[in-house]
Design goal:
single chain, alpha+beta, 5-stranded antiparallel β-sheet, 5 strands, globular, disordered C terminus
Length: 97
């Protein structure tokens, strides 16, 4: 799955330096895991509510990987290549070339 495919599916992109976060409101079950576990990145009281660079990349990825609904996904920017990590309980990794 590519960035274009995520956007075509209705995900909204929040750009960062090392990580882009994608969110789809219609998929979200509002468990609050993201807001409770990483309020520096996920804060529904501000706009934009996601600020990708407000925490370490690995910590942000860890929190997104625990999203129970799949409403949050991310693309890691690594040496010019993009790696999409589909974050649900059955995570998989695809590298775009």
């Amino acid at each position: 799955m590519t960035e274009k495919e995520l956007l075509d599916l209705g995900y909204r992109k929040y750009s960062g330096t090392l990580l882009d976060i994608f969110f789809k409101l219609e998929t979200c079950t509002h468990s609050g895991n993201c807001v409770r576990n990483l309020p520096s990145v996920f804060n529904t009281k501000r706009k934009p509510w996601i600020i990708t660079d407000n925490a370490e990349k690995e910590e942000t990825m860890r929190v997104i990987d625990k999203c129970p609904s799949g409403a949050l996904k991310y693309i890691v920017k690594d040496s010019g290549d993009e790696i999409l990590i589909h974050s649900t309980n059955n995570s998989f990794y695809l590298k775009d070339s």
